[in-house]
Specification:
Layout (H helix, E strand, L loop, with lengths): L4 E7 L34 E6 L5 E4 L2 E5 L17 E5 L2 E4 L5 H9 L24 H10 L7 H9 L50 E7 L21 E5 L7 H4 L5 E4 L7 E2 L5
């Protein structure tokens, strides 16, 4: 798997994916019932080669943090972000950036991942691996010896233990912090905006592409979740997504903002990162 030439399929324009402002799925509060309009993965387009290993990870130490929306610093709290509650999280690692097209293609070359549902630009190998479903994202993480982060882990990695409104603090975002609505108009190379780093050094946890998490989405889960390492609901019909994407306004970039996606959703503004 490591350090070998791999075949990058589905090249062309990095487009595809419709959907709501949050980047392709449906927000429980702002755009419930919408969908990214997922399409069947074809892997069409020209072919090119790349070399990639799984991306670097950052360490997130064990500790307590406040999960949910803090009314003291945030006037955009939604019902599904409440109550603000203290959780104890074990130490873990999470990808420093979103998984790239080249990294995902190694999994396709190994026969363990399906092709994306939109064309990728062969010159954009360091762009996020978008247009994949939750199942495809999970398959990649498993192949890399990792897994999708839980929703609690994702939020811990994004905000640290200081209940930040955004990964970098409480200052409102601009295009130097996040690739958001009004900036590039499309995804950009992962890790391009150092000013948007989280307290643990994770990049693009606000903007660029919305990121799948492992959990089923349940708008009322916070009221009954475990106080330590919550695994998420036992069942559901939609999966959680976090962080907002290049289509998103500032509200969707908040560290506490929750979103949901159908199992078949795949869009140019929807990607993922792995944890372990």
């Amino acid at each position: 798997m490591l350090g070998v030439a791999i075949l990058l399929v589905a090249c062309g324009s990095n487009g595809g994916g419709s959907g709501s402002q949050d980047g392709g799925g449906g927000s429980a509060t702002a755009s419930a019932g919408t969908s990214s309009g997922a399409t069947t993965a074809t892997g069409g387009g020209s072919q090119c080669t790349a070399t990639a290993d799984p991306g670097a990870m950052v360490q997130v130490p064990a500790g307590d943090f406040g999960m949910g929306c803090d009314d003291a610093v945030d006037d955009k709290c939604s019902d599904d972000e409440k109550p603000l509650h203290t959780l104890s999280i074990s130490a873990f690692e999470i990808d420093r950036t979103e998984v790239t097209q080249a990294e995902y293609t190694a999994c396709m070359s190994a026969g363990k991942c399906g092709a994306p549902s939109c064309d990728w630009n062969c010159d954009n190998q360091d762009f996020p691996a978008s247009c994949v479903t939750w199942t495809q994202a999970s398959a990649y993480c498993n192949w890399a010896g990792e897994r999708l982060p839980t929703e609690a882990e994702w939020e811990r990695a994004a905000r640290g233990d200081q209940d930040f409104k955004y990964p970098w603090g409480n200052d409102e975002p601009d295009c130097s912090h996040a690739n958001m609505s009004g900036c590039s108009g499309s995804a950009m190379a992962v890790g391009s905006l150092a000013a948007g780093a989280s307290p643990y050094g994770a990049l693009d946890m606000a903007g660029n592409v919305v990121e799948f998490v492992a959990d089923w989405y349940d708008e009322a889960y916070y009221a009954s979740s475990a106080a330590a390492d919550p695994p998420g609901p036992k069942s559901g019909t939609r999966y959680g997504g976090r962080g907002g994407g290049f289509k998103s306004g500032a509200e969707y970039l908040r560290t506490s903002k929750r979103d949901w996606y159908d199992a078949t959703d795949a869009a140019a503004s929807l990607g993922f990162r792995c944890a372990r």
